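Entry:
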Amino acid sequence: MAPDIPSGTQPLIPDIFDLRFCRFGKQVPTALKELVTQCWAPVMDDRPDFGTITRRLEHIAKALPEVREQQKQAGS
């Protein structure tokens, strides 16, 4: 764990939405950006709990075109 995290200080992390090799390219889903931003909220009580994170990630994953395509193929 980064030493800053227990003290409540947000660690310096790269902006994951600007990475050239991100698998989403320039189209990072808005819901994913919002979730990551909320997870790094400066006030701990404003961060989602793990159950909420899991549900939201499942919802985001189901909305991705490649997941929808795999589900279509599996249903055929």
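The radius of gyration is 15 Å.
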